[in-house]
Design a protein that fits this description.
Two copies of one chain form a homodimer. By secondary structure, chain A is mainly alpha-helical. Chain A has two domains: about 60 residues, Glutaredoxin, CATH 3.40.30; about 110 residues, Glutathione S-transferase Yfyf (Class Pi), Chain A, domain 2 (Up-down Bundle), CATH 1.20.1050.10. Chain A has a two-stranded antiparallel sheet. In chain A, strand 1 and strand 2 form a beta hairpin. In chain A, helix 1 packs across helix 7 and helix 4 runs parallel beside helix 7. Chain A is globular and about 45 Å long. The two termini of chain A are about 15 Å apart.
């Protein structure tokens, strides 16, 4: 589901690592992640799903990032910076994605979603999403990168939905450090956008 | 906040690892995680927060588990089993905790919560929570432990709120493999319950 930020994360990292892979399009919006065939591959019924060369499978986009980055410069060698990488990956899934990605999905990807979302529901998504953005803004006042001294999978994980936050009606005008960080991520050698396919 | 499953996770692991530590009681329900002093320590305003001996801080309970378990038998040495550990930790925070822990919090910990929760809201928490339990039940048909061949931080992370699921009105009668796994976890040498304090 290539317009999903969660699917974009491992695609971007595999491109940067030079790992060849094949995309299989599967869209949760048309029910194809709830078929018996797909559930046999991934019981959670979610994308992305990574199938390794030996057929073993791995779900959860941020688990893929940690797995693929092991032993590379995308996972910090310093133990505390690695711990901060974990911290930002869990922050992304618990405090960022459920608000920023969900607002984008409802307003931008769901036909008729903008017209039918309850105002109180949207207000809550925005309040929690802006709270997550404020935490990132504060961190980026201390460091150019989220987890440590250089670009890591923490930046990939948070970039995915932050760079599309406007599609969920988030305004980044008051977050100059986030905007500068988004530009830094996009300027990294080997960066590809969400539309890129192998 | 010792009745929080998220706070229980690192407490249990540190006990098993023999790491001495000091508890500082901080309760998100009385506003003490939103004070300027606490937000200076953890900008997300959440517990648990781990303060290392050198004063550096780490948030996110599952990040603490990965950090503390590194190099120990609680994080699998096999690369694929380690990846599965990551997978279960993200599953716990995205697909399990937001339903099972939240139902428990509303029904068991919030004064008047049982009387005021909207039936549709509780039905959604139960539907999503049972979906997570079904994924665990299926996995535990293949293996005694979630991530690999032995007890790991994946088991600690999922045990925390699963063993208290009844406090959120979840009935585990139809999940015999989960019940057997809960008993296995509790029978591990060095296991301590949520009431344990150092």
């Amino acid at each position: 589901m290539q317009d999903s930020g969660n699917c974009y994360k491992p695609r971007l990292l595999m491109h940067r690592l030079g790992i060849p892979f094949r995309l299989v399009d599967t869209d949760s919006r048309d029910g194809s992640t709830r078929t018996p065939e797909f559930l046999a591959l991934n019981p959670t019924g979610k994308v992305p799903l990574l199938v390794l060369p030996d057929g073993r499978r791995l779900s959860e986009s941020n688990a893929m990032l940690l797995h693929l980055a092991e032993g590379t410069r995308y996972l910090p060698a310093d133990r505390y910076e690695r711990a901060l990488t974990y911290q930002w990956l869990f922050f992304e899934q618990y405090s960022h994605e459920p608000y920023i990605a969900v607002a984008r999905s409802l307003l931008h990807l769901t036909p008729g979603g903008r017209e039918t979302i309850a105002p109180a529901r949207l207000a809550e998504l925005h309040e929690r999403g802006y709270r997550a953005l404020a935490v990132m803004e504060q961190r980026l006042a201390e460091s150019d990168w989220l987890a440590g001294g250089s670009y890591s999978v923490a930046d990939i994980a948070l970039y995915a939905y932050t760079h599309m936050a406007g599609e969920g009606d988030f305004d980044l005008a008051a977050y100059p450090r986030i905007r500068a960080w988004l530009a830094r991520v996009a300027a990294e050698p080997g960066h590809v956008g969400i539309d890129w396919r192998p």
